[in-house]
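Students often ask why inverse folding is considered easier than folding. One informal answer: many sequences map to the same fold, so there is more than one right answer. In these notes we will look at a single instance of the problem. The structure comes first.
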């Protein structure tokens, strides 16, 4: 953040998918440094556990689902964002197919940035989408800074691009134009929830079914987590 600092710069928030490794916990540290910043947790729309107590299958590989991690500090989470896996898979093609990269260079994205897009795997793209939705929800400007993390790269998912090509056909400049406008420029604030006290408590209480009934934690530990 120090590299981006300026007289009007403001750290607005941190956005990350939930999981078991503690990536979202970086938001706890950042809130200590920037008390007015917000922390947003993202998940797949097809498995909206935090948003709707929901479940289901999805294609955003590399993120947690169907439970609330024990280490998730729900009281410190300000927003939940559900990301459509269809959005991720179409941007995956835009960022990695030759026609998609050529299109992006043609609309003015610097060639060096286009060359770096394969550093974003499927869950990284999901985090990018969630960060954009976060910025739009809060009507942020060029003076606001939002942090997210790209925890995987296309080294893990190169076969997915080939599978999509086989399923959907060759990727063309016309498809790239559509994907850019629909799945990036057209991102909306649908499927988002700004959390109040009882929203947070509802999500925290979901830990019961995984960690107490299945993993041997106690109700006392769960209640202590909430109080602390």
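Output (designed amino acids):
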């Amino acid at each position: 953040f120090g590299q981006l600092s300026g007289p009007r710069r403001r750290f607005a928030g941190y956005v990350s998918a939930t999981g078991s490794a503690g990536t979202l916990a970086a938001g706890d540290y950042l809130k200590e440094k920037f008390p007015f910043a917000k922390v947003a947790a993202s998940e797949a729309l097809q498995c909206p556990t935090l948003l709707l107590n929901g479940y289901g299958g999805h294609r955003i590989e590399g993120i947690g689902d169907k439970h609330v991690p024990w280490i998730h500090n729900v009281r410190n989470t300000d927003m939940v964002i559900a990301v459509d896996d269809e959005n991720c898979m179409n941007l995956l093609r835009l960022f990695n197919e030759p026609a998609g990269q050529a299109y992006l260079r043609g609309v003015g994205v610097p060639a060096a940035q286009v060359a770096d897009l394969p550093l974003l795997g499927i869950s990284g793209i999901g985090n990018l989408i969630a960060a954009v939705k976060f910025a739009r929800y809060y009507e942020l400007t060029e003076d606001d800074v939002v942090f997210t993390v790209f925890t995987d790269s296309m080294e893990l998912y190169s076969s997915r691009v080939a599978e999509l090509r086989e399923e959907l056909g060759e990727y063309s400049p016309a498809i790239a134009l559509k994907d850019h406008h629909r799945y990036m420029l057209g991102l909306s604030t649908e499927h988002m929830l700004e959390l109040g006290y009882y929203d947070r408590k509802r999500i925290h209480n979901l830990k019961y079914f995984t960690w107490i009934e299945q993993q041997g934690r106690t109700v006392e530990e769960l209640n202590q987590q909430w109080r602390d």
